[in-house]
Amino acid sequence: MAEKALTAVVQEAYVQGVSTRSVDDLVQAMGMTGISKSQVSRLCGEIDDKVKAFLNRPIEGDWPYLWIDATYVKVRQNGRIVSVAVIIAVGVNSDGRREVLGMDIGPSEAETFWTAFLRKLARRGLRGVKLVVSDAHEGIKATVGKVLNATWQRRRVHFMRNALAHAGKSGRRVVSAFIATAFAQDDAEAARAQWRRIADQLRPKLPKLAAFLDEAETDVLAYMSFPVAHRAKLHSTNPLERVNGEIKRRTEVVGIFPNEDAITRLLGAILLEQNDEWAVQRGRYMTLETIAPLGDDPTVSFPAIAT
Length: 307
Description:
By secondary structure, the protein is α/β, with parallel strands linked by helices. The protein contains 13 helices and six strands. The chain folds into two domains: 1-152 and 236-290, no CATH class; 156-235, no CATH class.
C-alpha cells in the first residue's frame, strides 16, 4: 500500500510538471514516462479512498495513553515551496494495543492547530485519555488539559537537551548524572523531592538551570504517577520513532510534494500499513494486567491537570 502510494505521488508530480530531478529519474527508472493524467488520477483516487476511510474511522473504547509528534515536509503552494507540519497521534487502548489514531497537516504547530486536531479526534470518539506524551510544542500543554482533560508529559530526551544547554560544556556530564537520580526514584513523591534537591544544589552556581528545573518539574515527572511497567514507554515518543523513520525514508524520495493531498496520500498509506502490522502482532504493547488499573479507579493517583 505505501509503495503504491509512493508511486502515485511520484507519478502525480511528474504529470503536473512540478517534479524535481530525483522524481524525473525515478519516473525513467520505473518506466512510467508514457503515463497519462487519467491513469494517475485513477490510481490516486483508489488510494485516497482507503486512506480517508482509515483516518476518519470511529475511535472506540478508552485510550489511556496518547503520543503525539510533528514532522515537517516540503510542498508546493501557489508556485512557492513551503514547509508544513504533519502531526501524528498514536494511542494505546484499554486492551494494551497500539493504533494510529490520526494525522493532520497545517502551516505550523500553533495552539490553534493542536486544538483543532485534538477536537477532531474527540469528535471521532477519543475518550479516557490519562496522559499525552509529546515535545514541548507551543500551546500543546494547555490544549491537552482543555480538550482531553488529560495530563501532559514532556518528552524527556528533548527536555534534557534544553536543560544541558544551561549547564555549560564542562558541567553537562555532572548535571546529566544529577538529573538522572530523580528519574531513578521508585515513585512520584520521591522523584519530586529529589528533583527539588537537585535544583537547590544547582541554584547558587547555575541559577538559570535551577529555574528551568523548577518550571519543568510537573511536566517532566508526570509519567512517574503511572504504573512502573509503563514508565519506560511514557517519557518518550518511542512508539512513533519507527513510523517517523519510515516517513522520513519515503518523503526523501519525493523531496517536494506537488500538493497537500499527495502528503495525505503517502503518509496516510504509511500509517495504515503500520497500523495493520500492529493489529496482527501477537503480543500487546502493554499487558492487560498492568493497564487495568488505569480504568476509572479512584485508588490510582494522577498528577494535577494543566489549566
